[in-house]
Structures are given as structure tokens and as C-alpha cells.
Amino acid sequence: MKKNITLLSLCVLFLASCSLLDTEPQDFVTPSNYYNNETEMNTALNGVYATLANTTLYGNNLLGRMGLSADIGYESYSSDYGSVGDYDVSPADSKILTFWRDLYDGIGRANMLIKYIDKPQLDETTRNNIYGQALFLRAYYHFLLVVRFHNIPLILSVPEDGNRESVQTPQSSTRDVYLQIIKDMEEAAPLVRTAAELQSPGRVSQSTVYGMLARVALYMAGYPVKEPGMYAKAKEYAQKVIDTGSHAMNASYEQVFINYIQDKYDVGESLFEVEFWGTNEGTYTTTAGMVGRNNGIGCSSTNIIGDTGKSVVDLYGYSIGAIRTTPYFFTLFETGDLRRDWTIAPFTYNTTTGAKTEQTSNIWIRYCGKFRREYELSQPRSTNYTPINFPLLRYSDILLIWAEGVAADPDNHSADDLKQAYEYVNQVRRRGFGKDINTPDASVDLETGDKSYLLEAIKDERPRELGFELLRKDDIVRWGEFYDRMRYARSLAAAIPDSYTSSYYVNARRTYNSVNRRDEIWPIPTYELGVNRALVQNPGW
């Protein structure tokens, strides 16, 4: 059972729960009368964390419903037609608006906690730990925003009041936002506990901070900021995680995700995850999520199987199966790579018999398979909610970031670094093929070549390792390859015969035919433009 899940909706009611741009304050406990002791400070901190689990973010919408799988997966869910989910985007899109508003809500909560950090009597270690976590989360929420929208307002303090004029905040440049994110995270890193002390990837540790700093630096090195000097910083931050000695890849790729499904911490592999618990029944009604329910293997049949008294849903767990894969992603995996049939489910459920029907030739029908509800321990399984945690940062990603920090850095000419970069990529590959991680194996290891060869290999390895973990669109955008890769997916969808009219074929065509160059970023929400007159709409929107 997770130790950190609380009644988060209750503990944050008093906080700055309004949008950045709401004009009427919604507090009903005066903040100046709160933040008096360690309990109240930790309750407020729980409220900052609670943003991650919102239904507008990792609690629902982000899980396969906002187009972040890009060319490796498409949404096939009728409720989201005409939305960001199938790239029919508009500035009035409700999921984009609530993404924006709830992240700024989380930033507001963090700012309120930071404002009162010195108010209570606390020992300095405790105070610093609370402050460091709030500072990191504020930076992380800005990071999620800058990646999706580029130029955004930087909100680093609590508005003096709720008047309209107090929230007329112009956008900062993308580069300036990244610099502030790095500043906040670097300040936070030494203040929080180590992963070894914490033993909980649901909370922010030093490994969380340095690992996310490595990702931030990697993104800043690419499009649109294009500061190649940041590749060296990405490597530097990743090295700090490696040097802790607290992390190692789980020997089994499947077990990584079974652990998330079964509510088990794996501190070696998982550096940061969004925690969920229960099924929102009984006393705990706000702690569950929809991991697996949204992005699992489609399962909705209530047909009773034989004389078992159980339905197909009872056996495997309900899932809308919002994400299906593309032939491109399927063929990206090499023969013998065990990650393929775990990431891309090789079967569907027979709605009558409950049998697993192998899908050997029709790739478009295959679902995301990483979050398989059949492994859930809780019974009976809920139709609407799951206790499955969602990964935000894994150790294998740290190794790939380190390697890319070498391969993409035009100023790094170290033969030793290049050799180590190949080794880190090969460690990830060995695990993927079921081999011993630390033993060289010519059957799966990359042949050592130059940096350009390694970089292209990393571009293939990242989706194999991290597919359907909401990183694919970010990667191809920062590489400057978004539109070309989406056009290739469009060509695959266009090759589907017109006579194939099953909904998933229609959805694949619609998704990839809808993509434009402007879709590499989202539009600033129309509502926010109306309230904050200092905002300027993104190009193309």
C-alpha cells in the first residue's frame, strides 16, 4: 500500500485552487491563518502533489487522449472526436484549457507554500525538504507547460489580489522559462532527501530532481531553443543520478510495469511516478486514477463466460483501449526484442469466450499493452478507476539521456565518453532482449561506430524502451522531426484500403490526415487569451 496517498481533495480546498487567470478568489481558509506547523505544511505540500493526479492530467486526459503518442500510436475513442486526441485541435479545446489551468493551479499552490515557508517553527532539515519539493514541483509544472506551449507566463509569486489587473502577465521567452526551471531545480536538489533515504518514487528525491534536470537540459538543447551546450549539462545531471549508486534497471522489463500495476515500489528503476490508490470507493474517493482503464487493452464485454459466473471484464478489467499502435512502431522492434509484445499487446480479448485472440497480421488493431489490468491485485476491479501508478521518470531513460548527451554534443570528442555511451545504450538493449544487463552480448549490442550512428540508434531505442509513456511527441519535436514523422504515419494510414471501414482504421486515417506543422505545439486557450490580455497566441493558431 502506498504511504503518501491521502484525501488530497480535502487537504487542498483552502489553497489557491483558482486558475492563474480567475478573477474571483475561491479560498475559504485564509492562507495567513494557515501554515502554522509541520502538519499543515505537509498538508499543503500534498496539495501541490495532487495536481499530478488531476483528471485533466495524469489521472485521465493525458493517458492516451491528447495525441502525445504521435507516430507510434493513435487514439481510437469516439468520445474524443474533433479534439486534440485526434489532432483536430482548436484554441477552444477543453482538454488543452484544463491542462493549462490545472498546471497553473499547481504552480499557485506551490507559490503559496513557498511564500509561507519560513512561518512555522521547524527544524531546518524539515523546512528545506518541504521547500525543495515545492520548488521542484513548481519548476516541473512550468516544464510541462513550456514543452506544450513554448512561450508561457512565468509565475513565481502569489498575486496580491484576485483583481483582473493583478493577473495580466505576459509570456516569457521559451529560453527564459527553461533557465528559470533549471534555476529552481538546481536550488531544490540538495534540499530534498536522497532516493536511498526516501524509498518512495512517489515523492521528490535528489535523483528525481537531477534526473528531471537531465531531461530539461536535453529538451533545451533541441528545438525550439537550440542551445547545444545543454547536451553536456544533460550528461552532467544524468551522471549525478548514476553516481548515487541507488539505481539499477530491473532485470525484467515486464516486471517494471507489473510493479506499477500492483502498487509496488521499485526504487532502483523508478525515479518518479504519479501515485494512485484504490478504486474511489468507500472512504477514499479521490485517490484512484485511470491508468490501464484508458491506455490498456480494450475490454468492455460483460458477457458471462461459460459457467464461471464471471464476465470478460471481470477477468481482465475494463478498458476503453484509447490507444492503438501503428505499423511503424511495430516494425521498429527487432526480432527477439521482448519489449515489443509487452508494449504492443499481441492479442485482443474475445468478447464471447474471454480467450486472448492473437493478432499476427493486423497491426492497426493492437492496443498499448504496458498497463494490463489483468495483473491488478484489487478485486473486484472497478470499471471507472484503477490503483495503477504511472511512470514519469525511469532509470533506463537516465542512461539514454546520458548517451544522447554525448552523441548529440558537437563539442564532445571524448573517445571514452563515446564508448561509455554505447555501453549505456547496450545495457538498455540487453534488458529488452532478456539478456544479462551488464554482460556484453554480440547478438544484441550495437556495433561501435561514430556519434552520428549512435544518435540515430538512440532515436530508435527511445520509443522501444519508453513507448506510450507520453514522451514520444516531445522527442520528435525537440529533434525537429515532428512533421516529417507524422507525414510518414499519414502515408501508412493512407495505404489502408478504403473498403476497410472498421472504426480503428477510420480513426487512424482521421488522426494522421488532421496533422499540420503547427501541431508541434498547442494553441494558447481562447479563454485565457480573453482574460489575460497580455497573452499572444502561438504562431499558426
Write the layout of secondary structure elements.
Blueprint: H1 8-11, H2 38-50, E1 73-75, H3 94-115, H4 124-149, H5 174-188, H6 195-198, H7 206-221, H8 230-243, H9 253-261, E2 270-274, H10 312-316, E3 323-325, H11 327-332, H12 339-343, E4 347-349, E5 356-358, E6 390-394, H13 395-407, H14 415-432, H15 451-466, H16 472-478, H17 482-494, H18 503-513, H19 526-531
Antiparallel strand pairs: 1-3, 2-6, 4-5
Give an overview in words.
Its main location: membrane. Among the domains are: 312-388, no CATH class; 395-498, Serine Threonine Protein Phosphatase 5, Tetratricopeptide repeat (Alpha Horseshoe), CATH 1.25.40. It is 41% helix and 4% strand. The protein has helices spanning 8-11, 38-50, 94-115, 124-149, 174-188, 195-198, 206-221, 230-243, 253-261, 312-316, 327-332, 339-343, 395-407, 415-432, 451-466, 472-478, 482-494, 503-513, 526-531; strands at 73-75, 270-274, 323-325, 347-349, 356-358, 390-394. The strands form 3 sheets. It has a two-stranded antiparallel ribbon. The protein has a two-stranded antiparallel ribbon with strand order 2-6. It has a two-stranded antiparallel sheet with strand order 4-5. Helix 4 (124-149) packs parallel to helix 7 (206-221). The two termini are 45 Å apart.
